[in-house]
Amino acid sequence: MNLEILLATSNNHKLEEFRRILAPHGITLYGMSDLNMPPLDVDENGDSYFKNAQIKLLALRKLTSLPILADDSGLELEAFPNLLGLHTSRYASQFKDQKEANESIIKLYENNFALKRDATFKCALCFSLNEGDLRYFDGKMPGFIAKNATYERGFGYDPIFISKEKSLCVASLKNEEKDAISHRGKACKKLLTYLKIKGLIK
């Protein structure tokens, strides 16, 4: 049994991560470039991660009959509640590269030791088997901002995020360790449970 799903992304790092999690369960996951689709050109102006994921999914629903999976995720900082969150990717876009964005976050805490470093990665998934069918799943990874970045693995803000469950920087974890505790991994676990109940995967 094999289930084919289109992931609403042109981000190869994100596609690789979702494939790692879903492929062992008999799911073939396509990125938009795999199907020669242009990058999504939508305004992610929703007031929640779920709404932004839904916006992306509905834009793609007009272009394919395949089941679609869309996600929106963000990093939330307790000390700076309005800085990232729904604006996480937009925050990074103002810098030369992701490394510079990561270093800017670290610097926010350097001269104020009283600031809480608690942070949370959040992920919202929107899944559609067909037109008119929308299902939602979420996941969280609690942690805190590191004092120094670690560039071993991962992408995005992984190098500056320490998982509370592992007490290690996410970028230092092996893929299977990260997937077991990550916000995307936890959201995908809920998705997989749903797909098994529907009899679409074993």
Helical amount among residues, as a percent range?
A: 25-40%
Residue-averaged pLDDT, rounded?
Answer: 93
Find the structural class using helix and strand composition.
Answer: alpha/beta
> End-to-end span in angstroms?
8 Å
Q: What are the low-pLDDT stretches, counting only 5+ consecutive residues below 50?
A: none
Q: How do the helices and strands follow one another from N- to C-terminus?
A: EHEHEHHEEEEHH
- Spatial extent as radius of gyration: 17 Å
**Tally of DSSP β-strands:** 7
Q: Please report the number of helical segments.
A: 6
What would the principal axes of the Cα set say about the shape?
Answer: globular
What is the strand arrangement across the widest sheet?
2-1-3-4-5-6-7
Strand content: 15-25%
What can be said about the biggest beta sheet? 7 strands, mixed
Give an overview in words.
The chain has helices spanning 12-22, 49-61, 88-93, 98-110, 175-181, 183-197; strands at 3-7, 27-30, 68-77, 118-128, 135-145, 161-163, 168-169. It has 202 residues and is of the alpha/beta class. The protein has a seven-stranded mixed sheet with strand order 2-1-3-4-5-6-7. The protein is globular, with a radius of gyration of 17 Å. The model has no long low-confidence stretch (mean pLDDT 93).
